[in-house]
Write a structure and sequence with these properties.
Oligomer: single chain
Number of helices: 17
Helix content: 40-55%
Largest sheet: 5 strands, mixed
Strand content: 15-25%
Length: 431
């Protein structure tokens, strides 16, 4: 019974293992093991034998446990067949043929690889080298492109310093929160060649593509996904209006001297000005400069009274927010066209550039109001498709690069992204 608990402590599940000795030296725990003598079948002729030919001690790197690195000293038997004189080693469940690392350690590599840590730290903790970890990972983890979903989200992220381009291409399924594939660059001709290798039947199943306001993505979508509509991500076109309003605020603020109340309001509370006024809190707070209690909405009203042009800019911002919250998919094209006309008529220099962008991407912005309706029940299944999931994945990729102190091999980088993202990644090691 005691031997069972000792074996379980070092993750040796084979009940035929016997621990004969153990000693610790310089932070390394040396455990001496051997197997019970058993009858084995000859791999050549099939006859049973228990005749031992010789012994050989194998050093096997095991898990890092209880503050010590573990080395297993395995006294391995070789049996000899009395019929055909074939010599063969005894069977065991804890180490493969020709391996110097235990099966448990190899399992730990696959379990720890998806976690956000550097491969070097993982190797040092398991008493193996970085190259050993990657050799084993490349052998048993084979990331491959998943099938294209009905809703596809595409974006880019900063590539490796020595990659095929400044940015790498990423596509995900935003509905099921799943990574589809990672491509080493976002050049249009390379992406076209990549997607053209995918059967047309599979590409035709894509109904919706979500992207930012980058024109090559629009051209690519129309060419490789003929039956899909392109949706402009809400964050990317809303921030165009943000930038315009920020420009107006800074320009009006520069007209007032530092230290004045007007300068203080525009400098200190710019976040209130950018937010949808209807969503601002009604809770009072007491700024030290004002000396009395006030609400965020009242702060915005003070900003409106500073300048008529700023008041118009804030009102247009609130009007666009109201449009986003209330407009239907059918009404969106007309309402957006009317809003663009108001931007142009406002004669605000910063909003003229916003109007130009919205005119260029009007169809895709209107598509962002798209709602999928179930044919059987007429129920709206989803609304406001966005690139939120893929933007979060981009942040996760940055973390992976940072904790790994960068990558030089894109294949290793791609494998790590798949391992840290998809829980259903195919792993060939099952022993």
């Amino acid at each position: 019974m005691r031997e069972y608990f000792i074996n379980d402590l070092i993750e040796m599940k084979d009940h035929n293992v016997i621990i004969t000795n153990s000693l610790t030296e310089k932070g390394i725990k040396n455990i001496y093991i051997e197997m019970n003598k058993r009858i084995h079948r000859c791999p050549r002729c099939g006859k049973d034998t228990s005749r031992v030919h010789d012994y050989r001690v194998r050093k096997i790197k095991h898990q890092y446990s209880l503050g010590n690195k573990i080395i297993l000293h395995y006294k391995r038997r070789r049996y000899v067949c009395l019929g055909c004189h074939k010599r063969f080693p005894e069977e065991n469940q804890f180490v493969e043929k020709y391996q110097k690392i235990s099966n448990h350690t190899l399992k730990v590599i696959l379990q720890e690889y998806p976690k956000k840590q550097s491969i070097k730290d993982l190797g040092e903790r398991l008493n193996i080298s970085y190259h050993t970890v990657m050799r084993y990972v490349n052998k048993h983890i084979t990331p491959s492109r998943a099938r294209l979903p009905e809703v596809l989200s595409i974006d880019e992220f900063k590539n490796l310093s020595k990659g095929d381009g400044k940015y790498a291409f990423l596509m995900v399924d935003p509905v099921n929160k799943k990574l589809i594939d990672v491509f080493p660059n976002r050049r249009k001709h390379n992406l076209e060649a990549y997607f053209m290798r995918i059967p047309l039947e599979e590409r035709n199943k894509v109904k919706v593509v979500i992207s930012d306001l980058w024109d090559p993505y629009r051209k690519l979508t129309h060419k490789v996904f003929p039956k899909a509509i392109l949706i402009a991500d809400r964050y990317h076109y809303i921030r165009q209006l943000y930038w315009g309003l920020q420009g107006v605020r800074k320009r009006i603020m520069s007209k007032h001297k530092k230290g004045t109340l007007e300068y203080y309001i525009l400098k200190k509370y710019w976040k209130f000005i950018l937010k949808y006024t209807h969503n601002l809190s009604l809770k009072h707070f007491k700024p030290r400069r004002l000396g009395y209690h006030i609400t965020p909405r009242e702060i915005v009203d003070m900003a409106r009274n500073i300048d008529d042009e700023l008041k118009l800019a804030i009102d247009l911002k609130d009007e666009f927010y109201e449009l986003l919250h209330t407009a239907s998919y059918e009404e969106a094209p007309k309402l957006i066209e009317e809003f663009i006309y108001k931007l142009k008529q406002s004669n605000i220099p910063e909003y003229k550039y916003v109007a130009k962008t919205y005119t260029n991407w009007g169809t895709e912005i209107a598509n962002s109001f798209y709602q999928e309706i179930k044919e059987e029940t007429g129920e709206v299944t989803d609304k406001n498709y966005t690139n939120g999931f893929i933007e979060g994945l981009n942040n996760k990729i940055k973390v992976i690069k940072r904790v790994s102190f960068g990558y030089r091999n894109f294949s290793h980088f791609r494998s790590r992204i798949f391992a840290c993202t998809n829980s259903d990644l195919s792993i060939s090691f099952t022993k």
